Structure formats: structure tokens, C-alpha cells
Amino acid sequence: MSREEKDQAVLLLKLALERDPEYVKAMVVMGQTLMQKGLMEDAIEYLELAISKLSLAGHPTEVENVDLLILSSQWAGVVYMK
After folding, report:
1. The whole model's pTM is what?
2. What residues make up the domain containing 10?
3. How many CA atoms lie less than 13 Å away from 67 in the CB half-sphere?
């Protein structure tokens, strides 16, 4: 993605999260996008929030939620390594 596309993605993801603060998939994508922009501290906030929401709901059993938990955990690990 170009810089402009990443900036646009962040704006749209913020809008989505304003409308639905529980939208975990948007949190994960926001974390990934911010990481790609080099904004590691901001990225980890969204990724950890996604992990918390998925974990606090109990052990996720829906395939999408399990996938999101794995993905957000992996990306959080990458951010901490940088």
C-alpha cells in the first residue's frame, strides 16, 4: 500500500471503530496498518485491545475469532520485536 492508501485506511478504520467500538477485526487491521506506517506504540494499543476483547469473552470458539486472536497475537509479537 502507498502512504496515501495507508492514511486513508487509518481514517476509515477510525470511523468504523467510532461506530462500533467492539469491531475486533477493525482493531487488528488498524494495528497492522499502523505497524506498516512505523507507528509501533499506536499499533500495539490496537493489537492488545483486540487480544483483550477476544480473551475476555472467554475462549473464542468461532473460527473467525480464533483466527483474529492468533493474528493479533502474532502481529503484537512482531511489534514488540521491532
Report:
1. 0.88
2. 3-81
3. 5
Count CA within 13 A, CB hemisphere, residue 20: 9
The rounded distance, in Å, linking the Cα atoms of 14 and 10 is: 6
- Annotate 8-50 with DSSP letters as a single string: HHHHHHHHHHHH-TT-HHHHHHHHHHHHHTT-HHHHHHHHHHH
Domains identified in the chain, total number? 1
Q: What is the pLDDT of residues 4-44, one digit of tens each?
A: 999 999 999 999 999 999 999 999 999 999 999 999 999 99
- List C-alpha distances in Å: 42 to 20, 33, 48, 61, 76: 19, 10, 10, 28, 11
Residue 26, domain CATH = 1.25.40.10
Classify 71 as helix, strand or coil: helix
